[in-house]
User: Fold these one by one.
Assistant:
Number 1:
Amino acid sequence: MTALSRTPRETSVNLAVNLGGLSMKNPVTVASGTFAAGREYHDFVDVASLGAVTTKGVSLNGWEGNASPRIAETPSGMLNSIGLQNPGVAHLKEHELPWLAEVGATTIVNVSGHSFDEYVRVIEALEEAPVDAYEINISCPNVDAGGMTMGCHVPSVEKVVGMCREATKRPLIVKLTPNVTDITEIARAAEAAGADALSLINTLLGMAIDAKRRKPQLARVVGGFSGPAVKPVALRMVWQCHQAVKVPLLGMGGISTGIDAVEFMLAGATSVAVGTANFANPRATVDVIDGIIDYCEEQGVKDVNELIGALEC
Ligand SMILES: Cc1cc2nc3c(=O)[nH]c(=O)nc-3n(C[C@H](O)[C@H](O)[C@H](O)COP(=O)(O)O)c2cc1C
């Protein structure tokens, strides 16, 4: 943290929320993969002042990720096909988690795997580490095995969530893919298998083309679409899941302002994550918290929990 690191402004509004057993000092975390493990952003925001830091997806051993180019810009959104590149769970445990604990951050570790067993082994490797909750990513569109293929199929969702549930008593957040016909079916399966909370949405499968070269812009051709353009889809899915399940929801997809976050809470989210917006504005998280405070103060809302699911249809 430096003199330039920002913290949210003072307020008498109660901002604390509980996400399936995870106490958050305010409803705002970051979307996995857009904030590394927090250290790189600590010069811009005091990461301990966030509701939680969610780390980049971690697997048992390091993954190299996909070939480049693996980022493409589109109007109002971005495509990525990073492919869950990460140095493996031992590195996270040794280098990142102690730092997050030392600065006082609440930590959610995003867990990925190529097989059912790998998810469990990553959790087992972390059980003695300073982790406040796990987010199980069964929704990455950029890997050939595991990821989204698991998150689209009810029996696979039941199996992987059930196995992770047996491996830990810590809060278990299951991250859903929007690339399905009926997200409520997947949400119900994850809840029944033991999820304490659901997070949504991961990226939408998309592609971009360079017409002059007659080539795809991403080496992998297709990738995950995120940013402001996906917000209406994410809001719709949060709203549908809020009616379908009892577990709390962590909403994300295109959030860059406090009003965006409030909209997700009105649709049924207990907490929210800021993702792609961090790339354009590294202080986006604190801007979002301040924006929630502004909204609550203007509207006479004394407790942010009053907003959850308060949409009037
Ligand atoms: C570059 C990049 C990397 C991502 N990596 C992960 C990841 O490792 N695990 C995961 O669950 N989601 C990952 N995501 C998805 C985001 O966490 C989030 O669900 C999605 O981007 C929608 O939110 P946004 O529109 O605010 O970015 C990644 C997204 C981007 C843009």
Note: The chain has a mean pLDDT of 95.
Number 2:
Amino acid sequence: MNTKARVAGLVLLAFSAVAPVLAQDSGADVYKAKCASCHGATGLADSGAGKAMKVKPATDPDVKKMTLDEMIAVTTDGKGKMPAYKGKLTDAQIKASVEFYRTFAK
Ligand code: HEC
């Protein structure tokens, strides 16, 4: 086996070991699957459902002043038209998706 093939093999091996973990727990993946329909692909609530429910964009001052823990509480227990994710997502998935959502506030 030449060096190039060996390196390619190692890279493949490393990737296949890491990929399932990413697919499960990545905040971006959870956000896209569960949150983007209402909060918009980039957190601006510019989707149809987001507009219909008057969801605030992540850049709104009221949203920006919320702490990570407050957002986790809203996502876990729900608020107004926002569904509760307790039991539907793991605590780690909720935290990861909220952290991803918060990256849009900047
Ligand atoms: C069915 C539409 C819907 C989905 C899906 C949804 N949300 Fe919301 N979300 C809302 C609405 C509506 C509010 C405003 C609630 C209020 O203030 O009465 C809200 C509020 C929030 C807030 C509080 C700050 C703000 O923007 O007002 C956070 C944080 C949040 N959502 C995160 C999430 C996360 C994370 C997910 C995915 C796990 C998610 N949401 C999925 C509709 C949704």
Note: Residues 34-35, 37-39, 49, 53, 55-56, 63, 66, 71, 74-75, 79-83, 85, 97-98, 101 surround heme C (CB under 6 Å).
